[in-house]
Amino acid sequence: MLVLLHGQGANGDVWHGLSAFIERKWRGTCLIPDLRGHGRSFHREPYAYGTYAADVAALIGTDEAFLVGHSLGGAVALMLASGWFGVKVRGVLAFGVKVDWTADELARRRQFASAPVRWFDRREDAIERYLKVSGQFGLTDPASLAAASGIAQENGKFRLAADSRIAGTDDPPDIRPIVAVAKAPVTIAVGENDPMVPLADARLLDPHAAVIPGAGHNAHVERPEALWELITRITKVGDAGR
To answer: Alpha carbon 63 to chain centroid distance?
Structure first.
């Protein structure tokens, strides 16, 4: 099983750029969930790495899985690789995973989490907000289904589908000890031009961290073909889908 885990503020549709590769080349099942509080999933705290991991573990069940996670999704994949959740993890590719947070970044997270729901009169404005929050602005067509899945409509008004509390009131845990206890092979990667996660930070987690050429923070949206090449190299797709 191939499992794709999206980043904070996004949802499973953010992986649409990989769909053609998966259909043609992946010979097993593929699970692309919306993490709790995101997209079409339920809104219920706590929103934490461990809670997300437990939810995904329940979906995977007894299958053996190769996990690909972006940003928050990468942290969740690394949690699952720890063995704490009873999942058979064949390997992990985590890219764009934040290592160190500045005081300003943490303050913005807390501010976002405590903000009231923002309503929009126009669908287009809500979609624009979603694309900005999820890092897809200028990358994903606002008229696409992938963009529309990021918003919800209630009583003639529009809001983000994601719960604003997903940012969490607590600071994110240090990801380094989570990587250190992984019981499955782990590959850390970063976009060549990622403004949020420098290569030097990625190599704090993996001295051999891979670089995804021509990509920023959202490599799966910007350079899906390059990301698929990396997945192919790690999983040896010819037999990984069995």
So the answer is: 21
Q: What is the largest CA-CA distance in the chain?
A: 51
Q: Report the distance separating Cα 240 and Cα 182, nearest Å.
A: 20
Residues 92 and 21 occupy one common structural domain:
yes
Q: Which domain holds residue 135?
A: 104-164
pTM of the model: 0.94
pLDDT at 237: 55
Q: Which of left, alpha, beta for 236 (phi over 0: left; psi -120 to 50: alpha)? A: left
> Which residues, in sequence order, are bridge partners of residue 138?
none
Residue 183 main-chain phi, psi, to 5 deg: -105, 10
Query: Which stretches in the chain have pLDDT values below 50?
Result: 238-242
Beta bridge partners of 91: 66
Which phi and psi angles does 187 have, rounded to 5°? -120, 125
Residues 83 and 111 in one domain: no
